[in-house]
Each structure stands twice: as C-alpha cells, then as structure tokens.
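Human: If only I could read backbone structure tokens as easily as an amino acid sequence. Underneath my words sits a plain record pairing an amino acid chain with its backbone structure tokens. Take your time, and here it is.
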Amino acid sequence: MKMNREMMRQIQQMQSRLAKAQQELQNKTAEGSAGGGAVKIVLSGDFRVLSLTIAPEVIDPDDVEMLQDLVTAALNEALHKTQALQSEHLSGLTAGLRLPGMP
C-alpha cells in the first residue's frame, strides 16, 4: 500500500506538532505532596524530578518508614498529575489526520 502525498504531508505535520508539544511539556510542571505538604515533589512535563522538599519535622531517624511512605505518596501523586498533563497536552495532536483504518 503506497502512501499518497497528502498522507505524507499530514504525517510530517503531525511529527512537527509532536516535537513542539514535547518541547512545551518540558516547561510545564506538576507537584505532588504528602503529609499535609510535609513532602513535596515537582516534576517537569517530561517526568524529570525538578525538586524534592522535605519539612524538617518529618525527619525522624527512628521512623524512616514514615518518610519513605511520604516520599512515595508524593512521587506517585506527581507522576499521576504529569501523566494527566501529558494526556491533556497531546490529546489533539492527531486531530485532522486521516489515516486509512483509523477513525
């Protein structure tokens, strides 16, 4: 099956929009927190950890597990928000692209 020129043009446009969207996502952030804000993690839209803040009052050498749980919860929240950010930002990327066999 040969691709016609119009389809190739549409694919090139989509690739260009994807590259631009990925670059824009690098500049967006999502924050996750736990323990009432005692632990905060900020991720970029491309899943890089930009910062991790831990309030001194939650650092207890006798309860390391609690701190681990707080960091895990904050990271999971930040990851979920980043995934939603990506989904929202990239959802319209294929709009107008008419490929055979795709709705």
